[in-house]
């Protein structure tokens, strides 16, 4: 009995130490976020005070409206949302189907095709940047949203691999039972695999959203008209024009830009973590 009590106290002490360390590390990691929020709510004079002021004397919420008055961030927000959600639709229509075929369908040369798909992940994007640009220019897609949206309808090697790993964890008996009931391949995919794949699909949705929402290089290459710019391009322009003198306004626009990513991850983190863990179980 005394041994069990000692073991329990030791476990409580270790758990308490772990939680304290995690809290301290989390606080250290969140310091830049807190500083961004603090600066976004400061007055113009408080930004350059030394030693720095962590908590403003008065919260200046009008910094957000002031920042959005300098540049049409509302238009940039709509452009970014259009590109991001269109890209998510493209990934949802393409990657799960390809992953299902690699996971469950039998075909000669399937392993070679899957290796070729994975090999595209080893090719740096800088290598294909110029040929892809030339291709899109020949198609007349430069200065349109098409180069940022259409490639997502052809799938992503990373998401195909991630979903294939998840599909392999689903029992084959479920597919066999569905076929006995009259389902075809697509019926099995729609009625069995997709409903059971919410964690993996949520992971794909979060990654797709964050990659496209925060993308800077591709919009910089393909979008030349200012009315078609995304939030990242707008932030870059704002930094060049006012960033050195209006840090509070810059932090306000930056906070408004990253807030959708933080909100999405906050509400979908359970599915995200579950999808990441399960997709690495079976290869």
Short description:
This protein is mainly α and 283 residues long.
Amount of helix: over 70%
Query: What is the residue-averaged pLDDT?
Result: 83
From the coordinates shown, what is the CATH architecture of the largest domain? Orthogonal Bundle
Number of strands: 0
Using brief descriptors, characterize the structure shown:
283 residues, mainly alpha, MetI-like fold, 2 domains, 72% helix, flat, disordered C terminus
What is the fold's blueprint, element by element?
Elements: H1 2-29, H2 31-40, H3 62-70, H4 73-104, H5 110-119, H6 125-138, H7 146-149, H8 157-167, H9 172-180, H10 185-196, H11 198-213, H12 217-222, H13 231-242, H14 247-278
Can you walk through the features of this model?
With 283 residues, the protein is mostly helical. It has two domains: 2-63, no CATH class; 70-278, MetI-like (MetI-like fold), CATH 1.10.3720. The chain contains 14 helices and no strands. It has helices at 2-29, 31-40, 62-70, 73-104, 110-119, 125-138, 146-149, 157-167, 172-180, 185-196, 198-213, 217-222, 231-242, 247-278. The radius of gyration is 24 Å and the shape is flat. Mean pLDDT is 83; it is low at 279-283.
């Amino acid at each position: 009995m005394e041994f069990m009590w000692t073991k329990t106290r030791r476990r409580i002490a270790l758990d308490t130490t772990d939680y304290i360390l995690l809290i301290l590390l989390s606080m250290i990691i969140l310091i830049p976020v807190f500083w961004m929020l603090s600066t976004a709510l400061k007055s113009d004079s408080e930004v350059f005070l030394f030693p720095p002021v962590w908590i403003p004397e008065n919260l200046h919420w009008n910094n957000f409206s002031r920042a959005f008055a300098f540049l049409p961030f509302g238009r940039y927000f709509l452009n970014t949302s259009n590109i991001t959600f269109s890209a998510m639709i493209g990934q949802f229509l393409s990657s799960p189907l390809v992953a299902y075929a690699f996971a469950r369908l039998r075909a000669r040369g399937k392993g070679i095709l899957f290796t070729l798909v994975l090999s595209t992940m080893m090719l740096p994007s800088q290598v294909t940047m110029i040929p892809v640009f030339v291709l899109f220019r020949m198609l007349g897609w430069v200065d349109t949203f098409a180069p940022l949206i259409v490639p997502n309808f052809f799938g992503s090697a990373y998401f195909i691999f991630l979903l294939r790993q998840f599909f392999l964890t689903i029992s084959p008996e479920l597919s066999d039972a569905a076929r006995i009931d009259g389902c075809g391949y697509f019926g099995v995919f729609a009625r069995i695999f997709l409903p059971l794949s919410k964690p993996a699909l949520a992971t794909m949705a979060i990654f797709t959203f964050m990659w496209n929402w925060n993308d800077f290089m591709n919009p910089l290459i393909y979008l030349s008209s200012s009315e078609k710019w995304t939030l990242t391009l707008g932030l870059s322009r704002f930094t060049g024009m006012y960033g050195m003198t209006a840090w509070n306004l810059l932090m306000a626009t930056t906070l408004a830009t990253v807030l959708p990513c933080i909100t999405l991850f906050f509400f979908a983190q359970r599915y995200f973590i579950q999808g990441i863990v399960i997709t690495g179980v079976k290869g």
